[in-house]
């Protein structure tokens, strides 16, 4: 147990031999071979502290948590580019990939349904747009997570991903979230904080590492497994977390 607390293993699927020539051909090999790497305890501890702080800050609106994630993603993205050696690049690549996967799933499970439920037709339109943008990002993420820093398309893929993602983030922060907060305030002044708690629970999707509040076994071994799981199955697991 001590080992699982100090280091968590991130199992990233990679194709060792056949490098993806296109997205459609890259996804299948990702399921077939894997290698494992580790994320440093320092990063894990820092994340735990941040997550605990954000989860316990139950009075804030859900927008604050989402913006916090966005800022972290930008930091992780820059760290991938800035890292001076291959090992560090892989560690930040893993960190960025997991964080983006968990953030996306949290929005799809908690935030977009709230937009649909409380913002009427406009909420449905914005949620559809956001889901479509997520799909674009996920496709690039599938490709990116299978690349090595030494691959010629490593940085171009990451930059292309970030270009799409940063536009999406901008739209969420300037349009979607302010409108959602207005609608939630009209419905119930405390409801955004309630959604923040729900969204914060998605941060407990830390595969292959035990968490006192998480199911006994990690629900998914790889980012691909996590991101391609049916949303209703994710929702079932999600509901198993305590209502803190
Ligand atoms: Fe999003
Ligand atoms: Fe977002």
Number of domains: 1
Overall outline: elongated
Q: What is the average per-residue confidence, as pLDDT, rounded to a whole number?
A: 72
With strands numbered from the N-terminus, the spatial order across the biggest sheet is: 1-2
Ligand list: fe (ii) ion
- C-alpha end-to-end distance: 24 Å
Order of helices and strands: HEHEHHHHHHHH
> Nearest-angstrom radius of gyration?
18 Å
Overall strand count: 2
- Are there runs of 5+ residues with pLDDT below 50, and where? 1-57, 206-219
Per DSSP, the total helix count is 10
Organism: Exophiala spinifera
Pfam family, one: Hemerythrin
Protein name: Hemerythrin-like domain-containing protein
InterPro entries: Hemerythrin-like
Question: How would you describe this protein?
Answer:
With 244 residues, the chain is mainly α. The chain has one domain. Helix content is 70%, strand content 5%. The chain contains 10 helices and 2 strands. A two-stranded antiparallel ribbon has the order 1-2. α2 packs across α6 (120-145) and α6 packs antiparallel against α7. The radius of gyration is 18 Å and the shape is elongated. The structure holds fe (ii) ion (FE2) (2 copies).
Please outline the helices and strands:
Blueprint: H1 2-6, E1 8-13, H2 23-32, E2 34-39, H3 41-56, H4 62-82, H5 86-118, H6 120-145, H7 154-187, H8 191-201, H9 223-228, H10 231-238
Antiparallel strand pairs: 1-2
This protein binds fe (ii) ion (2 copies).
Protein name: Hemerythrin-like domain-containing protein
Domain Hemerythrin-like: 64-180
InterPro entries: Hemerythrin-like
């Amino acid at each position: 147990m001590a080992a699982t607390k100090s280091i968590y293993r991130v199992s990233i699927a990679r194709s060792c031999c056949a490098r993806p020539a296109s997205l459609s051909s890259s996804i299948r090999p990702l399921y077939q071979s894997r290698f494992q790497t580790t994320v440093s305890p320092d990063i894990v501890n820092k994340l735990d502290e941040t997550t605990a702080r954000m989860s316990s800050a139950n009075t804030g609106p859900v927008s604050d948590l989402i913006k916090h994630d966005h800022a972290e993603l930008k930091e992780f993205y820059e760290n991938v580019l800035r890292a001076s050696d291959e090992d560090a690049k892989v560690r930040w690549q893993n960190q960025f990939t997991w964080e983006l996967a968990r953030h996306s799933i949290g929005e799809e499970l908690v935030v977009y349904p709230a937009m649909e439920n409380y913002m009427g037709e406009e909420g449905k339109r914005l949620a559809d747009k956001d889901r479509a943008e997520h799909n674009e990002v996920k496709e690039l993420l599938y490709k990116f997570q299978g690349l090595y820093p030494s691959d010629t398309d490593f940085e171009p893929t990451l930059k292309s991903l970030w270009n799409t993602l940063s536009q999406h983030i901008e739209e969420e922060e300037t349009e979607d979230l302010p409108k959602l907060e207005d609608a939630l305030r009209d419905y119930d002044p405390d409801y955004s904080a309630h959604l923040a708690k729900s969204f914060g629970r998605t941060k407990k999707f830390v595969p292959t590492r035990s968490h006192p509040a998480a199911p006994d076994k990690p629900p998914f071994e790889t980012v691909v497994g996590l991101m391609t799981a049916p949303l209703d199955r994710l929702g079932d697991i999600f509901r198993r977390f305590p209502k803190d």
